[in-house]
Amino acid sequence: MWVVPEQRSVVVGVDGSPNSMAALRRAAREASERHARLDVIRVVEPGDAPVRRPFHSIREWLRLRRLVARLIPRSRHLTTRLRVLHGEPGAVLAESADRAELLVVGARSHSEHGNPLGGDTVPVVRERARCEVVICADQRAAAGENL
User: How many CB atoms sit inside 10 A of residue 96's CB?
Assistant: First the structure.
């Protein structure tokens, strides 16, 4: 009997915000150092999906591909997987990282709920993820806000 080891992976959530792009840079670096596949996930919340869901998913996947192509070297493209999933971002990311070594997410610098980590996604991910979680912020965007 042959036993095939499960592929190592690093999961990152990307929505196009500066903090999620910082998370993508960090996740790409971590995946490279760990010799792991990079799973880039765009979560579309249930209320965001129009009636023509397949076309919306394709459009989101193409947008995600453009974002990733700007930051990830072509040599990494063979070990990068892009996915568009539907649901609540925190729950979907935690579930997607169920067998991952690392989950990387971006945090908003300001939250309407007073959460210093921003938004609803980070607390859910921290609570539910079974793997190590890294929370990133784009320091360049934060420095620009102070000018």
Answer: 21
